[in-house]
UniProtKB/TrEMBL annotation:
Name of the protein described by the UniProt record: DHA1 family inner membrane transport protein
GO molecular function: transmembrane transporter activity
Organism, as annotated: Kitasatospora viridis
Superkingdom of the organism of origin: Bacteria
GO cellular component assignments: plasma membrane
Compartment(s) where it occurs, according to its Swiss-Prot or TrEMBL record: Cell membrane
Record InterPro entries: MFS, MFS_dom, MFS_Efflux_Transporters, MFS_trans_sf
First-listed, main subcellular location of the protein, grouped into a coarse class: membrane
């Protein structure tokens, strides 16, 4: 494994920690600033919006410099945002710090995916992407619980200061270990935007929104579901989230391993399995041991889709993958926001705390149908000619030097 992948994984670990740790610290933050917990929840919403907007913005800005330099800039921005959050004198400044940090999120994973894929042989690209995303999954096993514990024991500001320190480590690691890959010849905004004229890129992103949305429809409301339905104590929820993180870790590795061999079959299996498990969750949520096993499976099947979907976007975007890759990271967060809203809607309608699981199953099923449609179109195009960027009048593909 190239050591450069380790540097990317460290950056991913820091980003994953700051994204999710705030959920466990909302009561402390709300108390310190004298705001309600729903108001403090804007720290989660603001971060998600920042990811969706920052992914294309920062990636477009980064097309003018080499990828290693841009990754360093992004880690610097991430560090600055978390330091601002740690020192924020008011809630507004705290929210601004969260948004600043989130601007780096989508572009880091998008550009990092391209860099990771370029560091290895063609038959190992999905595995390299999975290695980088391992940092994100490990963050949910180690970083988030540890950050929550530190925040509750010492103060939430110490948690964000620690995450800022992780950003410095990631920045130095990238500077030292990631090779100075030149900016690809011919890289410019028009070429990057042309990738979105390929229907396969759009379908892959739609699969990302729906598939990952299926995961977070259930997980967003895991605390009330487990305490009110399964009968777990509030203190046990942290352990269940660690279990979810372990599932994410295992699924990510599994997805990376098999996506390099049979990408589309891996998507069929993971999305189909996710739909079935989420549907069963409406029943297993009533049993403590079965609920725990289901949470592990939701994490594993959900994250087994990440490397193949990210590689699918890279493959279909051809010579201009950077913006498409970053936008696909934004699609993950768009799925999170969509699922959280839909899950809250069915709960508010009085359908119960297990109702979001049905929403998740429906979303995962829709993603599976799109995967089948994507494969069918691809088979057709082999016989009738490619439908996408070139046939739509975009620039022809040219060899790209890395």
């Amino acid at each position: 494994m190239p050591l450069a992948l380790l540097a990317l994984a460290i950056g991913a670990f820091g980003i994953g920690t700051t994204e999710f740790v705030v959920m466990g610290l909302l009561p402390q933050i709300a108390g310190d600033y004298g705001v309600s917990i729903p108001t403090a929840g804007l720290l989660v919403t603001g971060y998600a919006i920042g990811v969706v907007l920052g992914a294309p913005l920062m990636t477009v800005l980064g097309t003018r410099i080499n990828r290693r330099t841009m990754l360093m800039v992004l880690m610097g921005l991430f560090t600055l945002g978390n330091l601002l959050s740690a020192l924020a004198p008011s809630f507004g400044v705290m929210l601004a710090g969260r948004i600043v940090a989130s601007l780096a999120h989508g572009a880091f994973f998008g550009i990092g995916s391209v860099v990771a894929a370029d560091l290895v042989a063609p038959n190992k690209k999905a595995g390299a992407i999975a290695t980088m995303f391992t940092g994100l999954t490990v963050a949910n096993i180690v970083g988030v619980p540890l950050g929550t514990y530190i925040g509750q024991a010492v103060g939430w500001r110490a948690t964000f200061a620690g995450v800022a320190a992780l950003g410095v480590v990631g920045l130095l690691g990238i500077a030292k270990l990631v090779p100075a890959l030149p900016r690809p010849a011919g890289t410019r905004l028009r070429r990057e935007l042309a990738a979105f004229r390929n229907v396969q890129v759009i379908l892959a992103m739609a699969m990302t929104v729906l598939g990952f949305g299926g995961v977070f429809a259930a997980i967003t409301y895991i605390a009330p579901m487990m305490t009110h339905v399964a009968g777990y104590s509030e203190g046990a929820v942290t352990g269940l989230l660690v279990l979810f993180g372990i599932g994410m870790f295992l699924g990510n590795l599994l997805g990376g391993r098999f996506a390099d061999r049979r990408l589309m079959p891996m998507l069929y299996a993971s999305l189909g399995g996710l739909a079935v498990v989420l549907a069963l969750f409406t029943v297993t949520a009533h049993s403590k041991p079965l609920a725990a096993v289901t949470i592990l499976l939701v994490g594993a099947l959900g994250f087994a889709t990440v490397p193949p979907l990210q590689k699918r976007v890279l493959d279909q975007a051809h010579g201009a993958p950077t913006l498409a890759s970053a936008m696909n990271i934004g699609a993950f967060n768009l799925g999170n926001a969509l699922a959280a809203w839909l899950g809250g809607t069915v709960i508010s309608a009085g359908l119960g705390y297990t109702a979001p699981n049905w929403v998740g199953a429906a979303l995962a099923t829709a993603a599976l149908l799109l995967a089948l449609l994507s494969a069918a179109l691809e088979r057709r195009d082999r016989h009738t000619g490619p439908v996408g960027a070139e046939s739509a009048g975009a620039e022809p593909r040219v060899p790209v030097r890395h």
